[in-house]
Amino acid sequence: MAYVIGVDCGTSGTKTVLFDEKGTVVASCTIEYPMYQPKNGYAEQDPADWANAMVNTIKAVMAKSGVKAEDVKGIGISGQMHGLVMLDKDNNVLRKSIIWCDQRTAAEVDEMNQKLGRDKLIKITANPALTGWTAAKILWVKNNEPDIFEKCRHILLPKDYLRFILTGEYATEVSDASGMQLLDVPNRCWSDEVLTTLGIDKSWLGKVYESCEVTGQLTAQMAEATGLKAGTIVVGGAGDNAAAAIGTGVCEDGKAFTTIGTSGVVFAHTSGIAIDPKGRVHTCCAAVPGSWHVMGVTQGAGLSLKWFRDNFCGAEMETARGMGVDEYYLMDKAAEEVPVGANRLLYLPYLMGERTPHLDPDARGVFFGLSAMHKKRDMLRAVMEGVSYSLRDCVEVFREMDINVSDMMACGGGGSSPLWRSMLADLYNCPVKTASSKEGPALGVALLSMVGAGIYSSVPEACKAVVRTDKVQEPNAAAVPEYEKYYQLYREIYPALKAEFAKLAKM
After folding, report:
1. Contacts within 8 Å (CB) and 24+ apart, 326-330
2. Where are the alpha helices (DSSP H) in 227-262?
3. How far is residue 263's CA from residue 258's CA, in Å, rounded to a whole number?
4. Within 13 Å and on the Cβ side, how many CA atoms surround 434?
5. Is the N or C terminus of the chain more exposed, i.e. has fewer CB atoms within 10 Å?
6. What is the average pLDDT value for the chain, to the nearest integer?
7. Are strands 407-411 and 432-435 parallel, antiparallel or unpaired?
8. 332 is an active site residue
9. Residue 235 near residue 215 (C-beta atoms within 8 A)
10. DSSP letter at 249?
11. DSSP of 179-225, one letter per residue?
């Protein structure tokens, strides 16, 4: 039996999973680490924490499993995207990594738009200039910490720093590199025009690979530290969402997944490059060679339900503790008692502004149609439906781009709710499935490493062999037209309030 390792470098911790070639989990270990916020809007982490967590979790899964080092055929790494790691000529880390959720770069986004123009940025990098992405962070260091910028000789993303630790190679792969805003996304290579215009030295960037290609081999020093064999291959890996796509089998046209975590993501595979000229969705290279993905994001998905729980569901939380069940289970049961449309109550889930499709940081949450007849359970149902409407908004943008979805997976905390899955199935008007494995990104990069090691000949073949469906929620023929009626009204509310949201923000 052959084995592979999937490492997932997240924001709260790094999780390493040892899988056999059938995708069965043999051993798993997670080590957590802090995030630093030196100022409001700043978010940083220490790359040494990621490296220590990776080395120690690999060591732990090897010790737990009893698997022989020579039977581990490959390593794949997934990671939080957009983080900036800067090394000097001696490979010392120059400063803490500015990570994905950092928002300090508004001036640098303006600088990028001024120097390159919004339309050109979208044409080359497939996305408008964004505060959370890597290019703006590099410019921030250049503008605010020139002494550090002067010493910089290498720029890596979080998971690519871990690759460097394992192999000594400066490399990246197309899915994660797409989120730097330095890659020519249609042509899957660094953009000389963007780099030259922004004054970033191309030699600082790693070689770009496809996600399943071999990028290096485990050094003798790292083999000794981890309990693996020197020479074990390390493949390109993928950014977290691209890795999750492979881990849930989203690797062909027509396939997509919806994640309901704090934010909500709708992610669809496409074999042809598709860019939204309005910049409402992100387009990146997929972890499948020669393919791309589009991704819509709603900011306040699971966050909306958590906000409602924390402020209005104290009784349910107390009852759940007494019964030994999850409070969200009881909240689901209460919402199930309410008909489609929440008794003519709609909710806009814009607690944190909105990305897809409105790109409006001033948008705010709204209950529309609230009356004296409404009870807490109506509001609860309205919140879940409002999040579902906002996710349908993402799918509508895909349809405008001629990307049609007929096979939808659901993951994240919200994906475990049968009620939420039924809402999505009715609003998408297609079956919504869950995967039997919950390992997502770690399984995705493990599959990529199986392809790199020759266990499978292609990424779709690996997905077909390993990824299994657990539950299938079919759309309810009677509910589909009813939801459509409410969804069309939902779509009219934001445009009617847009100007008022802007006025409120200025007060």
Report:
1. 328/413, 328/417
2. 240-247
3. 11
4. 19
5. C
6. 96
7. parallel
8. no
9. yes
10. T
11. GGT-EETTTTEE-HHHHHHHT--GGGBPEEE-TTSEEEE--HHHHHH
User: What is the CA angle 9-15-19, rounded to 5?
Assistant: 115
Q: Please state, in angstroms and rounded to a whole number, the distance separating the CA atoms of residues 363 and 504.
A: 9
Phi, psi (deg, nearest 5) at residue 63 = -65, -45
Hunting for tokens 């995705």 — which residue is that?
444
Tokens of 233: 């291959």
Under 8 Å between Cβ of 473 and 418 = yes
Check residue 280 and report its DSSP letter: -
Q: Return d(Cα 313, Cα 420) in angstroms, integer.
A: 18
Residues whose CB is less than 8 angstroms from the CB of residue 112 and which lie 6 or more positions away in sequence, other chains included: 121, 129, 135, 136, 139, 181, 198
CA dist 424 and 408 (Å) reads: 9
pLDDT for 243-283, tens place per residue? 999 999 999 999 999 999 889 999 999 999 999 999 999 99
Q: pTM of this prediction?
A: 0.92
Rg, the chain, Cα only: 23
CA dihedral 165, 61, 287, 234 (to 10 degrees): 40
Please, what are the domains in the chain? Answer: 3-242 (3.30.420.40), 249-433+473-500 (3.30.420.40)
Is-contact 390 354, C-beta < 8 A? yes
pLDDT of residue 62: 98
Which of the following is catalytic: 49, 240, 332, 393?
A: 240
Residues in contact with 208: Cβ distance below 8 Å, sequence separation at least 6, in sequence order: 171, 172, 173, 174, 177, 183, 188, 189, 190
Cis peptide before 357 (omega within 30 of 0): yes
